[in-house]
Amino acid sequence: MAVKTFKPTSPAVRGMAVADYSVLTKKAPEKSLLKARKKTGGRNSYGRITVRHIGGGNRTKLRIIDWKRNKEGVKATVKAIEYDPNRTAYLALIQYVDGSKSYILAPAGLKVGDVVESGAGADILTGNVLPISAIPVGTVICCVELHPGKGAQMVRTAGASAQLMAKENGYAQIRLPSGEVRLVSEVCRAMIGEIGNAEHENVKLGKAGKSRHAGVRPSVRGVVMNPNDHPHGGGEGKSPIGLPGPVTPWGVPTLGKKTRNKKKQSSKFIVKSRKG
Length: 276
Prior knowledge:
CATH 2.40.50.140; 4% helix
């Protein structure tokens, strides 16, 4: 996939860079794999805004993605590569030999007509899902399970990939995109390859309207608010925040404040922190 730029016929187009979508082979999604997506506007069941800057946007539907890939030993053919408005990665529509269809995340290099498979006996090929115990050390993987049978939870964004570093005592060491090395049970499964659409990071919206189409409302800087609205507010003219460090509207430190619970049970599975 390449990124397409335009001649600067307007201020918005001057800074815009969009995906050319040349790898997509199908426009309309599979109707049997769609689900309604309800919008909340950032409000909870009481009607109060609990998450700011959410609202509006184009109407979209959820694609039902097969995160578990439970059909072991059954081959499936890639029928199409499709766009998903709910994520950065593209989707691959696969059809099994028994006629059933499902969506999976499209890894880089997967094309229409390719055959994918899941299970311990599958080959080490892009798009196949195997238990980590059956994957050779050094293999590039994605869509990694954290708990056996729960489905892929890690390494699912566009261009992301992890690497299998070592295996011992029933656990595997996996280096995640953040640089963190984490222990994962060898019973968990992962997909071979890296997620496609790696050029997504080069896309530039160019105008405020594109954020509104995605359902993102404008955010206002705290320094331009009044003191009763934000801790950064107040002062004569253009003034600094007047604090040792930035805080949220509710006074909680941000930009570097560690929020992870030190007593969290899963911390024992982190071999190397992403901070080194």
